[in-house]
Amino acid sequence: MACIGVRSFPSFAFSISAKAKPIREAAAGACGAPAEATREIDVESKLTGLRSVELGVPDVASDAKFYAEVWGLATVAEHRGAVYLRGTGAYHHILALHPRPATELLGITLAARSRADVDALHAAVTARGARSATNSAPVSEPGGGYAFAFKDPEGRIFRIIADDARHSDAAPVPDRPERLAHVVLNSADASAATKFLVDALGFKVSDRTRVMDFLRCNRDHHNVAFARSRASTLHHVAYLVPDLDSVMRGTGRMKDSGYPIEWGVGRHGPGNNVFAYFIAPDGAVIEYTAEVEEADDTHKVGGPQDWGFQPGRTDQWGITAPPSARIKAAQEKILFAGDLACSG
After folding, report:
1. For 234-279, what is each residue's pLDDT tens digit?
2. Quick check: is 13 in a domain?
3. Residue 281's domain is classified under what CATH number?
4. Domain of 52, in residue numbers
5. Residue 342 domain-assigned?
6. Domain tally for the chain?
7. pLDDT tens profile 51-74
8. Poorest-confidence range of 2-6, 189-193, 300-304?
9. Which secondary-structure segment (H or E) carries 250?
10. What's the rounded Cα separation, in Å, for the pair 14 and 328?
């Protein structure tokens, strides 16, 4: 893959301390530790992680300004009316904003190890009933690469990519997102959606609760989750920051900029991650998160009986109020695009 140079990110007076990773026992209530910027993958996996999310929005310029100046990303490219934004990690971009009449989820891009793995996954998803799969081909948009796109059985658009450009100046920066932690999708049939990603793309189930299935393709506890819902829509997109202090500082910056906390700051059960949720100007629910639990083949898959909080709590700490009515409504509004227009 190509390495490229880009503008530097701002420096800050405070620093990050390196600590041990959180483990499963932390889910019972202990405070976890920062996740590292780079994670090893399971050797049998053809996917290395969640690369980017592509959104269609009515006002690309305004939304790009928000994500760059308030949320903490950096504009890395513009192409045919679209804006591409990176985190402080190596991925060329983690968010792409394309002009559309209404906000919609255009696609979710997953990174594969090689072109051969892209082709193997193309064969796998086609054999398992993926809809409208494009052929594997070079990508013409910023970041390049070799990819194909397809629709899962509920119509969500995924893209599998390899050989895309990576940044050589990747490093954690306090208070700024490194990469995407996960994307959560509402599903009218979460069990079927989970089965498809497991069978076709090699995802593994980390945990199941009464509300969600949590799936991973690397050592992050989850890269994708399916929430049981009445319809198939975008639930939220989570951005990984280096540590708890960064979650708190980012939350303060959002409040200073007029964006109230919709849920948090708290600590989840499955994944053991710290969280703070907001609603972006485009209507998408976005999350700052840190200290995500790692999982490997020794990880015991939890079931609904393993997860729950005492009455009155919606997280481990018991400090945050429940999710706001605004966020609950926003988590059901954003539909999936009906075409594969952003696949090339």
Report:
1. 999 999 999 999 999 999 999 999 999 999 999 999 989 999 999 9
2. no
3. 3.10.180.10
4. 28-336
5. no
6. 1
7. 999 999 999 999 999 999 999 999
8. 2-6
9. helix 244-256
10. 35
